[in-house]
Design goal:
The chain is mainly beta and 111 residues long. The chain is built from 2 helices and 5 strands; from the N terminus they run βββββαα. InterPro entries: Cupredoxin.
């Protein structure tokens, strides 16, 4: 896949089949990408907003491309509990979190 970017600097790629795709930059052009820089795309199914395959863009980050450190596409549903953990740090505490402060202060409470 060798495409030249349009004036906006976006390189479209059509990932039509389910699978794992690897993109390796072969151009030494800092505004676009560094030589040897790579990205991994995990395609798990068709996009819900369009009937056909959705194009992925580089170098801008979009929800469809996955960074190379993530080994599987399955961890994507798991980040939803992480925003719920953030309010526990604030002054407002959910009703179910009443038992967690004693454990945070050094384990079980001894009476």
């Amino acid at each position: 896949m060798t495409w030249k970017p349009n004036p906006a600097g976006i390189v479209p790629y059509n990932l039509s089949a389910v699978g794992t795709y690897h993109f390796v930059c072969t151009v030494r052009d800092p505004p676009h990408c560094g030589l040897g820089q790579y990205a991994t795309f995990f395609v798990t199914g068709p996009c819900s907003s369009t009937p056909g395959p959705s194009p992925s863009t580089l170098p801008m980050a979009s929800p469809s491309p996955k960074p190379s450190p993530s080994p599987k596409p399955s961890p994507s549903p798991k980040p939803s509990p992480s925003p719920k953990a953030a309010p526990k740090r604030g002054a407002k505490k959910p009703p179910g979190a009443k038992r967690s402060p004693p454990t945070m202060e050094g384990g079980r409470r001894h009476t």
